[in-house]
Design a protein that fits this description.
39% of the residues lie in helices and 17% in strands. The chain is built from eleven helices and 13 strands.
Length: 311
C-alpha cells in the first residue's frame, strides 16, 4: 500500500513513517525540506509546500496514493484538499487533538462529549473545525476520512510536557539539580500523555480498519495521572531531592516565566476515554506515563538537552 504523509519529518510524522515502513507500506513524505528528520532511507521525499495548490494537484494526479496521513493541515487547507483526495486517493487519516474537550464537563472525555474550545485555553477551535469539515465531507460524499484526537505527545524525539504547560527542558534540569519546583494549585489536575510510538500504531490501525470511515477516535495512554504524580515520576527517574511547592496560577504567572494559555489549559483535567479506539481499531497503548517519561528524558540526555542520569 502506498501512503503519503503530509508533514512527516519530525516526531509524530516520523514515528508514523517508521511504523508503516516496518509493516510493509511504501511511504512518501511531503515536506519543505526545512527539517531533515531521522527517517529510514526507504522513505521517499517530495520537497514542496503542502499549500502550493498547483504542485499538490499535479502530484496527486500522477502519484495516486492508497492513503494520506495528515499532521499539519488547517481547516482552510482541508476545504480544497478533500475533493482532490477523493478523486485521487483512497482515504485520509487526520491528526486532531483531545484539547477540544477542555474545559471538560465529565471525565474521562469521550468522542461524543461537548467541545467548548474557549480561546483562553489554547485555541483548539481550529482543531474542532477540522474535525467538523472531515465528518461533513464524509457524510456528503462517502469519502473515507478519519480524525484521531491525540492527547499530549511524549516519547523520544521531543521535550516532554512540563508542569507549567510548556515543553521547557529547564524544568527537568531544576529537578536534576535538586532545586525547588512549583506545581500549579493543589497538584491534582490530571494529565494523560501518550507515547509517540503508541500513536503511530494507532494511525496504522486507522488506515487498516474500514470501520474507521467517517469516525473520530481518541488516542491516549491507558490512564491519567495527577500533576503531582507526574512530577514525582520525574523526580524518581532523575534521583532528585527537589521539594515540590504548590502555588496558585496567579503566583506562577506573576513570575513572568509561564505562558498563560498553556498554564490554564494544563490546570484543566485531561483524562481521555480510549474505549472506542480499543473496540474499533484494536488500539491498546503499550507505554504508561512513567515509562514514556523515562524514554523521553533519556533521549534528552542523549541530545544534550538535560545534564542528568536517568534511572
Amino acid at each position: 500500500m502506498k501512503v503519503l504523509i503530509i508533514g512527516g519529518t519530525r516526531y509524530l510524522g516520523a514515528a508514523i513513517a517508521r511504523e508503516l515502513l516496518a509493516n510493509g507500506y511504501a511511504v512518501t513524505v511531503l515536506h519543505r525540506g526545512n527539517t531533515p528528520g531521522h527517517l529510514p532511507r526507504e522513505v521517499q521525499h517530495v520537497l514542496a509546500n503542502a499549500r502550493d495548490r498547483t504542485f499538490v494537484e499535479a502530484h496527486f494526479r500522477e502519484a495516486r496514493y492508497d492513503a494520506v496521513v495528515d499532521t499539519i493541515l488547517e481547516k482552510e487547507d482541508l476545504d480544497w484538499y478533500l475533493p482532490l483526495l477523493r478523486q485521487y486517493t483512497g482515504q485520509l487519516v487526520h491528526c486532531g487533538s483531545t484539547g477540544v474537550y477542555a474545559p471538560a464537563e465529565r471525565v474521562p472525555s469521550r468522542e461524543t462529549d461537548p467541545t467548548p474550545c474557549p480561546p483562553d485555553l489554547g485555541g483548539f477551535g481550529g482543531k474542532l473545525a477540522q474535525d467538523e469539515a472531515l465528518v461533513a465531507f464524509h457524510i456528503r460524499t462517502g469519502f473515507r476520512v478519519c480524525s484521531l484526537r491525540v492527547s499530549n505527545v511524549i516519547g523520544a524525539g521531543d521535550i516532554p510536557l512540563d508542569i507549567w504547560g510548556a515543553r521547557n527542558p529547564a524544568y527537568f534540569q531544576r529537578l536534576a539539580d535538586h532545586q525547588e519546583v512549583w506545581i500549579p494549585n493543589d497538584g491534582r489536575a490530571l494529565v494523560q500523555p501518550v507515547h509517540v510510538s503508541d500513536l503511530a500504531r494507532g494511525f496504522r490501525a486507522a488506515i487498516e480498519t474500514e470501520k474507521s470511515a467517517g469516525q473520530i477516535y481518541n488516542l491516549s495512554s491507558d490512564r491519567a495521572v495527577t500533576l503531582t504524580a507526574y512530577a514525582e515520576y520525574a523526580k524518581e527517574l532523575l534521583g532528585s531531592n527537589s521539594e515540590l511547592h504548590f502555588a496558585s496560577m496567579e503566583q506562577i504567572l506573576a513570575t513572568g516565566k509561564a505562558d498563560e494559555a498553556g498554564l490554564r489549559f494544563l490546570c484543566e483535567h485531561m483524562c481521555i476515554d480510549g474505549s472506542r479506539a480499543a473496540r474499533d481499531l484494536g488500539y491498546h497503548p503499550k507505554f504508561d506515563v512513567r515509562e514514556s517519561l523515562r524514554d523521553t528524558m533519556s533521549w534528552m540526555v542523549e541530545q544534550g538537552l538535560l545534564r542528568a542520569g536517568v534511572q
